[in-house]
């Protein structure tokens, strides 16, 4: 991997034969937002560096071929596991690295050979907001890249909030040890600068955009597509209800201003009263539609509607993938969501959208498109006040659509060029000695 000569390039100028590891997002998840992040990066690598060897970390078992990503690509299982003897266990990976036996462990071997480790943190999980165990899991591949001495690239994501000094200190060390870090919105970029500290090389603390803006929509199977086209033949409002926010524990955890389910039910009734047909769009789905599944939230709202109201609602099949859901959302006249990547699917297809948000991340991403005014903060507003604000967005949908038509195309283009430019950087690092200096 080392050497000072300039390696081979393709017609784009990107170095050929790159060896890449993608962490912090996988396709084998019911979270379509995380899937959208992974798919957008995989598709970009396929377009711009088709002969790259790409290893995508997931929570599966063993190493599995992934020909859809490229001829030299695979899926590599890694996980926190009490089965510490399993090669997928982070304990075994750390041990192999500590003993200098990376070749004895599939994941450790891929970290050791990587020209760069690209990490997404699930888009918004580089925080201790979800607890120390979640932060440890999100940090594990980052630490593995640092231990291997390979360039760590933090792809566009949210940084923080960090509510504990331990969590913040851990994040600061990881960021300062990375080679490049992208924030996906202005707010996150400010957090990134603060975490990196004043002595950091700010040219490598970059303000980017969420990679899911560049995800291409895909028409579902004909039966589903025809059904959605029938549903959207008249005035149609799409609604994403988050299963994460349903119970009283969530209200306390996220400091919500009121009853989330009651607010969303009132909103659905308001949309129906405005003569719109409501199409529910689940964006996180678990087996059986339980737990934090959006299907559980949808069911509870529909149960509260009268039979007449319920007859004017539809539910997009929860098993569609991220690209197919994006196509469905693009057919709507207007959309509101609490899952942020459901709203990115709308914004990036020029579909007027609002967010009923539980964190600052939505405001930052909407600001990317000049749409911050279309975010209603669930921590500050609930009930009739929140519903009125969201319905104002619905009523202003044609004005919003015109504004999106001007603001969004450059954002979509940036989501793709930032990855293309990064691959050029990785090739340069490889050609100049196989690594890159840390930010600090």
Count of domain modules:
2
CATH architecture of the largest domain: 3-Layer(aba) Sandwich
Q: How many strands appear in the DSSP assignment?
A: 14
Total helix count? 16
- How would you name the oligomeric state of the polypeptide chains in this document? single chain
What is the gyration radius calculated from CA atoms? 22 Å
How far the N terminus sits from the C terminus, by CA atoms, comes to 23 Å
Strand order of the largest sheet: 3-4-2-1-5-6-7-8
Q: What sequence of helices (H) and strands (E) makes up the elements?
A: EHEEEHHEHEHEHEHEHHEHHEHEHEHEHH
Indicate the low-confidence ranges by residue numbers.
1-5
Shape: globular
The CATH class assignment of the largest domain is Alpha Beta
Task: Note down, in words, how this protein is organized.
- Pfam families: PS_pyruv_trans.
- GO terms for molecular function: transferase activity.
- Keywords: Transferase.
- Residues 79-359 form the Polysaccharide pyruvyl transferase domain.
- The chain has 440 residues and is of the alpha/beta class.
- The protein folds into 2 domains: 19-214 and 413-431, Rossmann fold, CATH 3.40.50; 222-408, Glycogen Phosphorylase B (Rossmann fold).
- Helices cover 44% and strands 13% of the residues.
- The strands form 2 sheets. The chain has an 8-stranded mixed beta sheet with strand order 3-4-2-1-5-6-7-8, with helices on both faces.
How would you summarize what this structure contains?
The protein has 440 residues and is of the alpha/beta class.
